[in-house]
Description:
The chain has 242 residues and is of the alpha+beta class.
Amino acid sequence: MLKFLPSLRASAPLARPFRRPASLRLLAPYRRCSDHRSHEMAAVSSLELNPPPEFFQSRIDLFDKYKAEYDEMVKAKPRQEITITLKDGKQKSGTSWETTPMQVALEISKSLAERLVIAKVDGVLWDLNRPLEMSVNLELLDFEHPEGKQVFWHSSAHVLGEAAEKHYGCHLCFGPPTEDGFFYDMATYDKKVLPTDYSNLETLSKAVIKEKQKFVRLELPKEVLLEMFKYNKYKQHFIETK
């Protein structure tokens, strides 16, 4: 259940924003479900700005460009056997720039993998699908771990941020996790945020979750980030002061 505070302090997706599947594969035996799905999608679309803000696409284009460059860099990295040491001292073998924490978890048990939120590599938080680069100490964190909980709330904030951008065309500011949830400060300018908006934002957030969008990590130079968020003075401030 999403928690909306009166000031609508909630969150936003900066990793892989607003990419929808190019097409939906509808199968004849499931026509009734497909019809229901189409109706559901139409209802969700009615809650989004049409046309969407221009910065949606420009942000995606920049991301895609630099993600492709990163993928080529990873592909060119030399592979070597690495040793992955788990918290209990057990060791697993892997391949640098290929093996991920999620793959290690799946080797242990599917139920463990399904519970995970984030990993720690040599004490540093590490995305579950991010390749390991060398021999490491690996810890696998679920929602019950304090840091796992913080990452989960932060990711939830990104979902709410996407919903808010789609609904208001707002400029997102600050959206951290808290001890028991998350919030996002945002500028809606001439649009007022009303209690009646909460259910619409929850509907949009649920739609984002159903799309199963991936959280993708990408490190970029400051000048590229300033270009990506040139429309948003709040993000510009954070980038400039880092």
